[in-house]
């Protein structure tokens, strides 16, 4: 394949910060990526500090570092630090936002076909309680159909849910265009940006979302068990109180009353993994230092090289859809189950993922696809690694 320019990213430097690159080809970044060395070191140092002086004392000593996650997250998303809550992951963030939306029997909720399993379970539950959940169809290219969405939006729609980057087909949905349509109504707009943050530039103002959820473990390259929830400041007082609150979420004002935090921290609890929180802040700063535009350019270029290579094989078919694509590449291999392909690749030190219908029923089911092999390239991957993956797939006869 043609050698790609490295753009603005020093590939040698980021690979040096990722020691596993010496013995492993990691293409499972859409599942969980490899944290860079500064993230790992920050977490280890914090845990050592806790062990040496105590947990509360360590949190006080590292208060500025712990606040870093809000500052970096705000810079990455284009919002205020007070509009962000630290969570254990994208699913918790999404659920906290979803449960805060005031919904009543008869209200309508619109959702795209690429919605993730955990989100759909929530929507199924509210459907059982009289909320009308409707799926917006895709257009012929596989992304959410903007004309169909516009026709479905009326005063009865209370909430629109959208996954910005599909985990099952590599497409980037037109999130800003959806936001513009939703904002013209009185509905709330909840975006699952689990696969987007850390891979492409994200701007909550440009997207027009009231809520956005993301995880630390994927393209952000942060630790597992971390994530963030964005809540637009202007909607904060319109929302239902969080189901679970404590002294971090609210102030106990009298024997029989309390007052919620005025910021998104009302969605946090006091006890959390402080070392992981510190590590997520370092990971966000690391991504900001490289630049999201440069990251997207490299990731999309590597993914296109991979699609080109797969298209040249007789025994594999790329299954990606959409007009705009990202670093997630999905495919199938003749005569091989996806889990078997992932196991074969792992046996030769190449990490990839596999997904079945139960993870994305609306998307995969509508395309009559039972399972896929899924690869997520990142900026620390190389063209040689892409070539190696294509060669290994070609060998599966």
The assembly state of the depicted protein chains is single chain
Number of H- or I-type helical stretches: 14
CATH topology of the largest domain: Aspartate Aminotransferase, domain 2
CATH architecture of the largest domain: 3-Layer(aba) Sandwich
Secondary-structure blueprint:
Layout: H1 11-16, E1 25-26, H2 37-53, H3 55-61, H4 63-77, E2 84-87, H5 90-100, E3 108-111, H6 117-127, E4 132-135, H7 146-152, E5 157-163, H8 175-183, E6 188-192, H9 204-207, E7 211-215, E8 227-231, E9 250-254, E10 257-260, H10 274-290, H11 292-311, E11 316-318, E12 328-333, H12 338-347, E13 350-351, E14 353-356, H13 361-366, E15 371-376, H14 383-394
Helix pairs in contact: 2-3, 2-10, 4-10, 11-14
Tell me what you see in this structure:
- The chain has 397 residues and is of the alpha/beta class.
- The protein has two domains: 11-35 and 291-394, Alpha-Beta Complex (Aspartate Aminotransferase, domain 1), CATH 3.90.1150.10; 39-289, Type I PLP-dependent aspartate aminotransferase-like (Major domain) (Aspartate Aminotransferase, domain 2, 3-Layer(aba) Sandwich).
- It is 38% helix and 17% strand.
- It contains 14 helices and 15 strands.
- It has helices at 11-16, 37-53, 55-61, 63-77, 90-100, 117-127, 146-152, 175-183, 204-207, 274-290, 292-311, 338-347, 361-366, 383-394; strands at residues 25-26, 84-87, 108-111, 132-135, 157-163, 188-192, 211-215, 227-231, 250-254, 257-260, 316-318, 328-333, 350-351, 353-356, 371-376.
- The strands form four sheets. The protein has a seven-stranded mixed beta sheet, with helices on both faces. Strands 11-12-15-14 form a four-stranded antiparallel beta sheet, with helices on one face. Strands 1-13 form a two-stranded parallel ribbon.
- Helix 9 links the parallel strand 6 (188-192) and strand 7.
- It starts with 10 loop residues before the first helix and ends with a helix.
- Residues 1-6 have low confidence and may be disordered.
């Amino acid at each position: 394949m043609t050698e790609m320019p490295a753009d603005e990213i020093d590939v040698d430097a980021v690979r040096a910060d990722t020691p596993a690159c010496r013995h492993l080809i990691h293409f499972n970044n859409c599942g969980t990526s490899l944290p860079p060395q500064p993230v790992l070191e920050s977490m280890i140092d914090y845990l050592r500090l806790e062990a040496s002086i105590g947990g509360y004392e360590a949190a006080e000593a590292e208060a500025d570092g712990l606040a870093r996650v809000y500052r970096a997250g705000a810079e990455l998303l284009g919002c205020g630090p007070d509009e962000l809550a630290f969570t254990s992951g994208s699913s918790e963030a999404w659920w906290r936002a979803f449960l805060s939306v005031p919904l009543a029997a008869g209200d309508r909720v619109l959702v795209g076909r690429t919605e993730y399993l955990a989100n759909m379970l929530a929507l199924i539950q509210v459907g059982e309680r009289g909320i009308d959940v409707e799926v917006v169809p895709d257009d012929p290219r596989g992304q959410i159909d903007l004309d169909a969405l516009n026709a479905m939006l009326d005063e009865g729609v209370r909430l629109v849910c959208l996954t910005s980057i599909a985990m099952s087909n590599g497409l980037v949905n037109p999130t800003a265009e959806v936001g513009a349509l939703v904002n013209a109504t009185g509905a709330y707009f909840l975006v699952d940006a689990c696969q987007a943050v850390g891979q492409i530039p994200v701007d909550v103002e440009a997207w027009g979302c009231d809520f956005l959820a993301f995880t630390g473990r994927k393209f952000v390259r942060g630790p597992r068990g971390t994530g963030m929830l964005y809540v637009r400041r202007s909607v904060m007082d319109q929302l239902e109180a969080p189901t679970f609150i404590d002294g971090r979420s609210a102030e106990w004002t009298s024997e029989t009353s309390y007052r919620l935090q005025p910021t998104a921290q009302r969605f946090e609890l006091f006890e959390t993994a402080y070392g992981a929180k510190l590590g997520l802040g370092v990971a966000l700063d690391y991504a900001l230092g490289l630049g999201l535009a440069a990251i997207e350019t490299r990731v999309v270029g590597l993914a296109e090289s991979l699609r080109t290579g797969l298209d040249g094989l007789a025994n594999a078919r790329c299954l990606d859809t959409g007009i705009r694509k990202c670093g997630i590449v999905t495919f199938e291999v003749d005569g091989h189950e996806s889990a078997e392909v992932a196991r074969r690749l792992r046996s030769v030190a190449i990490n990839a993922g596999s997904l079945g219908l139960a993870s994305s029923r609306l998307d995969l089911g509508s395309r009559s696809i039972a399972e896929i092999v899924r690869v997520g390239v990142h900026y620390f991957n190389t063209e040689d690694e892409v070539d190696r993956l294509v060669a290994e797939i070609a060998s599966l006869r």
